[in-house]
C-alpha cells in the first residue's frame, strides 16, 4: 500500500513561522474516496503558473519533479534516480526509466528539457522563476541522462528543484507543445500517483488513482479537494462527515477535535506570513521611516497569542528560525506606538494617511482575523488601512501585472535564504516589487558561493540593506 499523498498539506503565519495543522476523520479504507477541505480553490493547474500552496497540494498528486523530500527533510530521488557534478557548472541527472505520463507519452530526457525550457523562458513569467533562474541551459546527454548548465556554481540546486518544484514539475512535451497554457491549466497531465478527472471552479477538484504509477498504485482510489473559505464551515464539515481532511485547523480547536475518529496531525513548517509594501508608487510607503513605523505599530506577539494560541515562532525577517543562515541575534521590531507616531511625524505624516490593504481570505490559517487585527493596530497610530479581500486568481493576476497597491498580506516558504529572498526581493520580481541593486549583488554572490560559512556571512550583510 502506498501513501495517499506525496507531501504534507501545508500551512503558514505573520512574521511568524508556524506548524501545519491538519485534522483527519477516521481512516480511509483501500479503494475508497477521501475528501479534503482547503481554504481556497486552485489557482492554475499549470505547474509553471501556479502560485499558492493549496494548488500545490493538488499538483503534487498529479505531477512529479526530479527530486523530492523525505520525512526527515532530506532530498531524495523522484523522477531522477541519481545525480552528480561533472564540473562546478554542471549538474547531471540520471532519470527513472519506464515512466509514462497519464496520456501515454514517455518520460525521458527530452521531456525534462522541454519542461524546463518552458519554465525558464522569462517571457513565460513563472511565479517561482527566480528559484531556478541560475540554470542557463538544459542539455540532453542520452535518452535518460540530462545535464543542467548553470551560469555560476549553484550550491542550492537540489533544494531549488524541490522548493521551486512548481515550475520544476515535468509536463508531457508533445501535449505542452500542442496546447496553450490555459488548456494545460484546465486539463493537467503528469506522471504522478493520481490522474485528473474534473475541476468545477469553486466546487471541487476530482482525482483518480493512477494504476500505472511508477511508485505503485495509491491505496485510495479517488481524492476530492473542496474549497471552503470559512474555517468554522470546514470544521463543521469534518465533524458531520462531509469531509475527511481539513487543512489549517485553528489552534483553539485542536483539543476538542482530537480523539475518537478524528486525529490532529501537526507538521513542522517553514512557511511564514508577513506584510509586503508596494514602494513603486508615489505613496507614503516609499519612505523607509513609514515602513519602520508600520513595523513598530503592530503588536505581533499579541496577535500570535490571541489568534494562534501562541503557536509558531516569531521571526526577525522573512526566514524561518530553523532556516540556513538564520542568526539568533537578529531581533524583530519592538511594539512601540510612540516610536511609530514619531517616525510618521518625522516623515511628514503626523496625522497618518489612508492606504489599501489587500489579502486573500481562507488562504492561510486565520488570515482574515490577522489582517483585521493588523489594521486595528495601524489605526491606533493614524493609518487607515482599507481592507480588500481578493480571490486567488485575481491576486495572482494583479501580482503578475504589478498592480498590487499599498500593503499586502502574502506568505512564503523556504529554509535557504536564497530561495526566500531571491523571489521576494530581487529587482524585477512581482512578489513584493522591491528593488535594491546592493541586495541584488549580494544575492547573486550568495547563490554562487559554495563555502557554507562564506554564504552565511553574505546573508548577514543582506540584513543591513534598506
Question: Ends: how far apart?
Answer: 52 Å
Quick one: overall form? globular
Count of helical regions? 16
Q: State which percent range the strand residues make up.
A: 15-25%
- What composes the largest sheet? 7 strands, mixed
Which class of the largest domain in CATH terms?
Answer: Alpha Beta
Percent in helix: 25-40%
CATH topology of the largest domain: Dipeptide-binding Protein, domain 3
Structural class: alpha+beta
| CATH architectural grouping of the largest domain | Roll
CATH H-level homologous superfamily name of the largest domain: Dipeptide-binding Protein, Domain 3
- Round the Cα radius of gyration to an integer and report it: 22 Å
- Which stretches are low in confidence, meaning pLDDT under 50 for 5 or more residues running? 1-19
How are the strands of the biggest sheet laid out side by side?
10-11-12-3-13-2-14
Number of strands: 21
Number of domains: 2
Average pLDDT level? 86
Keywords: Signal, Transport
GO biological process, one term: peptide transport
Protein name: ABC transporter substrate-binding protein
Family: Belongs to the bacterial solute-binding protein 5 family.
Summary tags:
single chain; 466 residues; alpha+beta; 2 domains; seven-stranded mixed sheet; four-stranded antiparallel sheet; disordered N terminus; Peptide/Ni-bd; SBP_5; SBP_5_dom; ABC transporter substrate-binding protein
What layout of secondary structure does this protein have?
Elements: E1 16-17, E2 20-25, E3 33-38, H1 53-62, E4 67-69, E5 75-77, E6 80-87, E7 90-95, H2 109-120, E8 135-142, E9 145-150, H3 157-163, H4 165-168, H5 173-178, H6 181-186, E10 194-200, E11 204-209, E12 222-227, H7 231-240, E13 245-247, H8 254-257, E14 262-267, E15 271-273, E16 276-277, H9 288-297, H10 300-308, E17 313-314, H11 337-346, E18 353-359, H12 367-379, E19 383-389, H13 392-400, E20 407-408, E21 411-413, H14 417-425, H15 437-448, H16 452-462
Parallel strand pairs: 3-12, 3-13, 18-19, 18-20
Antiparallel strand pairs: 1-17, 2-13, 2-14, 4-5, 6-7, 7-9, 8-9, 10-11, 11-12, 15-21, 16-20
Amino acid at each position: 500500500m502506498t501513501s495517499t499523498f506525496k507531501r504534507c498539506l501545508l500551512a503558514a503565519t505573520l512574521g511568524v513561522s508556524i506548524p501545519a495543522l491538519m485534522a483527519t476523520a477516521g481512516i480511509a479504507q483501500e479503494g475508497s474516496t477521501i475528501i479534503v477541505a482547503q481554504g481556497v480553490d486552485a489557482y492554475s493547474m499549470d505547474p509553471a503558473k501556479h502560485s499558492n500552496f493549496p494548488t500545490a497540494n493538488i499538483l503534487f498528486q498529479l505531477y512529479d519533479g526530479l527530486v523530492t523530500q523525505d520525512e526527515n527533510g532530506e532530498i531524495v530521488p523522484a523522477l531522477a534516480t541519481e545525480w552528480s557534478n561533472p564540473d562546478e557548472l554542471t549538474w547531471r541527472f540520471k532519470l527513472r526509466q519506464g515512466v509514462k505520463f497519464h496520456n501515454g507519452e514517455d518520460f525521458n530526457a527530452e521531456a525534462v528539457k522541454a519542461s524546463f525550457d518552458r519554465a525558464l523562458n522569462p517571457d513565460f513569467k513563472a511565479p517561482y522563476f527566480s528559484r531556478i533562474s541560475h540554470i542557463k541551459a538544459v542539455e540532453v546527454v542520452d535518452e535518460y541522462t540530462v545535464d543542467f548548465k548553470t551560469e555560476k556554481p549553484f550550491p542550492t540546486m537540489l533544494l531549488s528543484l524541490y522548493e521551486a518544484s512548481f515550475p520544476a514539475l515535468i509536463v508531457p512535451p508533445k501535449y505542452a507543445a500542442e496546447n496553450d497554457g490555459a488548456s494545460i491549466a484546465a486539463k493537467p497531465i503528469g506522471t504522478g500517483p493520481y490522474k485528473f478527472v474534473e475541476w468545477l471552479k469553486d466546487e471541487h477538484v476530482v482525482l483518480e488513482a493512477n494504476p500505472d504509477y511508477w511508485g505503485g498504485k495509491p491505496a485510495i482510489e479517488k481524492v476530492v479537494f473542496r474549497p471552503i473559505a470559512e474555517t468554522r464551515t470546514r470544521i463543521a464539515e469534518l465533524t458531520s462527515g462531509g469531509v475527511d481532511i481539513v487543512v489549517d485547523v485553528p489552534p483553539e480547536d485542536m483539543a476538542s477535535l482530537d480523539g475518537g475518529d478524528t486525529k490532529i496531525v501537526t507538521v513542522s513548517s517553514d512557511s511564514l506570513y508577513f506584510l509586503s509594501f508596494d514602494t513603486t508608487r508615489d505613496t507614503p510607503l516609499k519612505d523607509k521611516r513609514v515602513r519602520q513605523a508600520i513595523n513598530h505599530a503592530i503588536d505581533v506577539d499579541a496577535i500570535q497569542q490571541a489568534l494562534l494560541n501562541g503557536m509558531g515562532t516569531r521571526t526577525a525577517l522573512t526566514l524561518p528560525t530553523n532556516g540556513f543562515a538564520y542568526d539568533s541575534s537578529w531581533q524583530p521590531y519592538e511594539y512601540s506606538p510612540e516610536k511609530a507616531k514619531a517616525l510618521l511625524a518625522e516623515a511628514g505624516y503626523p496625522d497618518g494617511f489612508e492606504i489599501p490593504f489587500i489579502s486573500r481570505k481562507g488562504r492561510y490559517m486565520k488570515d482574515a482575523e490577522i489582517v483585521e487585527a493588523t489594521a486595528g493596530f495601524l489605526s491606533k497610530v493614524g493609518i487607515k488601512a482599507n481592507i480588500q479581500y481578493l480571490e486567488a486568481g485575481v491576486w495572482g493576476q494583479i501580482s503578475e501585472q504589478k498592480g498590487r497597491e499599498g500593503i499586502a498580506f502574502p506568505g512564503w516558504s523556504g529554509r535557504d535564504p536564497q530561495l526566500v529572498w531571491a523571489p521576494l526581493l530581487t529587482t524585477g520580481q512581482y512578489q513584493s516589487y522591491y528593488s535594491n541593486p546592493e541586495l541584488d549583488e549580494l544575492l547573486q554572490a550568495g547563490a554562487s558561493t559554495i563555502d557554507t560559512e562564506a554564504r552565511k556571512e553574505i546573508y548577514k550583510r543582506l540584513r543591513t540593506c534598506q
